[in-house]
Structure prediction request, 363 residues.
Amino acid sequence: MSDVYAQPTTGVDATDVRALASYTTLRMGGSAGRIVPGNSAEEIVRAVREAGIRDEPVLLLAGGSNVVIGDAGFPGTVVLVRSRGLKVVAEDAETVTVRVEAGEPWDELVAATVANGWSGLECLSGVPGSTGATPIQNVGAYGQEVAETITGVEAYDRANDTVGRIDAADCGFAYRSSIFKYSDRWLVLSVDFRLARSPLSGPVRYAELARALGVEVGDRVPLADARATVLRLRAGKGMVLDAADPDTRSVGSFFTNPVLDRAAYELFREGAAELGEAPSWPCPGDMVKLSAAWLIDKAGFGKGHPGPGGVAISSKHTLALTNRSGQASTADLVALAREIRDGVHSRFGVTLHPEPVLINCTI
Ligand SMILES: Cc1cc2nc3c(=O)[nH]c(=O)nc-3n(C[C@H](O)[C@H](O)[C@H](O)COP(=O)(O)OP(=O)(O)OC[C@H]3O[C@@H](n4cnc5c(N)ncnc54)[C@H](O)[C@@H]3O)c2cc1C
Prediction:
């Protein structure tokens, strides 16, 4: 059976079967100590337990679309999340709750929900990777995030050696974050989503999507229209994986949008006044979210800006750092990320933070 998540081997030493670059969308990362496939929840738990007994570090890797792995690789056991399957576990006249195994490819799930007339995931069409990774950073796009539909996850707790359910309220979901991010305590084995039985999308919240659909913000559209339009918008930004498009050799957005308290925001506004009104969004607790893409662009790092070794800002999206040549190293990517972070800080006094999980490397 072919590996649904394997990446084309451009720039990867095809003779190195442990090269993690073959498992990441950036096509970067040195070798693993060992790589073990986990084709079911039981296999995943067993592989992690056994590595623990050997006192080896463990890395769970699914689609490899949100990790930056250092050139030295990972000196332990990498467990590939490859469990498949979904089933309806509850339903009533208005909703259906579907339980999805962690390794189920995310976009196949979204396509299936749209085809079934289940509403709630359609705006997350085209996000690469696995279903089990979506709670890790509360995946979001075009006005939807998984925290809105997840009711709970089944997880293996490495600290207590138990498998149990964690309700959504206890997952600590926040903007691109949860209790699972940067923690190796939890293995998400399956995820439950409660979706509305409806041929229509949720209210469209994202202005760009509403414009592309020819509707007003707040309107609902047929699920298939929402999916097709999101996929089209994403492809135009290099945000749908495409082996023929070097702009998609990335982790999507490299930096999160910074969230400032009111005082820091006012300071930023003063310093950036001559650039016109910067895009911003109010957040709970009198916080304000800024656009990382705007900051990067205005600090002088435009689309296509090159870094060392063949890395570059995507030619389609300022927030994506790409392995444009297919031959670049993680050190090259890190150098570009640092240049951008430092440039934004010296121009605006705002610190950008990476969105992907950094493994054996740091910016
Ligand atoms: C072109 C492109 C576009 C993108 N667009 C978006 C977007 O619009 N919105 C968005 O939020 N993200 C986006 N991303 C980021 C990424 O696709 C998502 O974060 C995705 O959910 C990662 O899934 P994965 O299976 O590839 O995770 P991986 O990269 O394999 O893993 C990511 C992290 O989660 C951990 N992990 C993975 N599976 C599990 C599990 N079952 N249990 C516990 N830990 C686990 C890993 O150890 C690692 O720390 C994009 C990435 C790319 C390349």
Notes: The radius of gyration is 20 Å.
